[in-house]
């Protein structure tokens, strides 16, 4: 973006900006990505060759199946790739920023600018334009998002990043900006390592975090998969079914199921139009499953789920070992406390239809065997949110926030929204005059469940 700060309402010139920045020592910023928000490489254990497996446009589905399909190991708590000769790594180039910038950094993608893979790119440009320097006051944390949000490797990685940013800036506390599931990872770290969090963190700006889960999207992800992008561009990405086989074995997905202890305004449900035979007659009923009852539905629907890999059949039913792990993670999240002295800010998306309830089959075309769900397309009921995370969940952080701000933008678009940037600049103290048009609730006015 060059040397000018990205905010259309500023009217100072570059010389004034350079002088202001030179006179102001900036606290370091650490950007933390969400699910699907980090480049993943497949690395040969012996030869050390790397292949980008997430995200890539060319040969996306083929490489994903060969090198990223995984199974969960209940002994270690980690999801491990089926290809035993490789390991999944996250590149740490450019002080961790490369992995969370443009997810497919190929020349082709840059030429046509596929916006869906531009992750923190615009925000990085904005911060650099405001005087932040990569490796001194600006860092990134990408991670293997298949894994649990509280797994040791991810917790240790975040600790190292915080220490690095703290030392590189001359002992200044770090300001974290997290997106989506990255907020859950930060919450787990804060809950498990509260003293370390207090030592290194000054402010935490959280964007679009599913604090209480993302019921519609996650329920459907476990049953039918996930389409990363829609429309014509989807033909260049990993297919919905291919993604489904990965997600069934991902602890991070289970950890974003609806929190059953949260006081939802309306309980999220999975509904199924079901065909039964009784006394020689066919009966069609609409069955409903809440957050607890849905477990039996997942078990029945996924009982025959399997994939073929390297000439072998791999069974991938609903994983109760992951469910137990995720239940413990939910407890860690529920127990999290914001340390005194750390300022918390929450930005969440509104004004877009967001999946909440999900329905399979119809009255005229009902489901007979629940395993048929995995080969059907859902019908959603919607609530207000960012098209991925309901606003009700995203704003229910449970912390003493300095501000909670609702902004009309989609989930990933929040990372390049001008109004989001204006708030961030104001909270970081790197702006002069800001005109903000959004709903803002101070702590005294905000209610958090």
Automatic annotation (TrEMBL):
Annotated PANTHER family: LECITHIN-CHOLESTEROL ACYLTRANSFERASE-RELATED
Full protein name: Phospholipase A(1) LCAT3
GO biological process, one term: lipid metabolic process
MF-aspect GO terms: O-acyltransferase activity
Species for this entry: Prunus persica
Top-rank lineage group of the source organism: Eukaryota
